[in-house]
Amino acid sequence: MRMQRWAAGGLALLLSVGLLSGCGGNKDALQPGKLNVVTTFYPIYYLASEIGGEEANVVNLIPTGVEPHDWTPKSRDLNTASKAQLFLYNGAGLEGWVDDFLHGAGQKVQTVEVSHGIPLLDAQDGEGQEVNHDGHAHDDLHVDPHTWVSPKSMLLMGANVKEAFVKSDPAHRSAYEQRFEALTARLGTLDRQFADGLANVGKRDIVVSHQAFGYLCRDYGLTQTAVMGLSPDAEPRAQDLLRIAKFVKDNGVRTIFFEELVSDRIAKTLAEEANVGTMVLNPVEGLTSEEEKAGDDYVTLMERNLQNLQKALQ
Fold first, then answer.
1. What is the pLDDT of residues 188-244, one digit of tens each?
2. Can you identify the CATH homologous superfamily of domain 35-120+145-189?
3. Could you give phi then psi for residue 121, rounded to 5 degrees?
4. Which residues make beta-bridge pairs with 224?
5. What burial letters (b/e) apply to 57-66, b meaning 16+ CB within 10 Å?
6. Which residues contact 53 (CB under 8 A, 6 or more apart)?
7. What is the pTM of this model?
8. What whole-number distance in Å separates Cα of residue 283 and Cα of residue 79?
């Protein structure tokens, strides 16, 4: 996974310069009189927006249409995050720059690792074995960070976000808890749709372009084989492509899944060689501009994922 590691001293200096100069491009993003919340990417932004409502001003650092694995913040992003009351990040190794940001920001911002409490998967060699969740110590790039792709995980992540809101702004506890209950009902329905919809499918193996679906597979009884690894732009080796092509033929796989925010070239080439179809399976790492305009959100995209899985596995 190409997640750049910033030197702590260098990032702290960059953060200090941004704070002293006031030159951050997002300086107007924060609003007085509201709980200002900064999130690192779309799934957390979705949770925070649903729970925060009108009492909160939620700012997402990553722009629409940008894939989060290789994104790194500019000084204006760090400036915005350092001035918020609450900073929410996924953790589990997704945001390679966060540890150094936390070192530079000190204790001025309440920070929450939203994936905390989820049994994490060790994705080395695609084994999908669980590893201990130990706070911020996720330097091992073989930990699978894609917790949010499972609705079961999102339920726990939503609870972590709600607790953070209540702690940061106890005066509006009731409003946050009411919205959290509504969100939990929606995510709970989605969880049941996945459990029921995948319970009796004829096949349980999925071939995906990007190793992002381990938590979904663990929670709903599927098995993933990935063309690329944890990072969607990793280049597969020739022997990997041959192995996957053989797996597709030997196991009667009829569909290879690709995603929208990265190139589908390798997945479609492999599908052509294996004479199988392709479909989108969205890891919901962010919205495209078209999805944003259409009013799509985490739940609608995951419902679409379920429909495609059912078609491919029938």
1. 999 999 999 999 999 999 999 889 999 999 999 999 999 887 666 667 888 888 889
2. Nitrogenase molybdenum iron protein domain (3.40.50.1980)
3. -105, 140
4. 206
5. bbbbbbeeee
6. 175, 176, 179
7. 0.86
8. 29
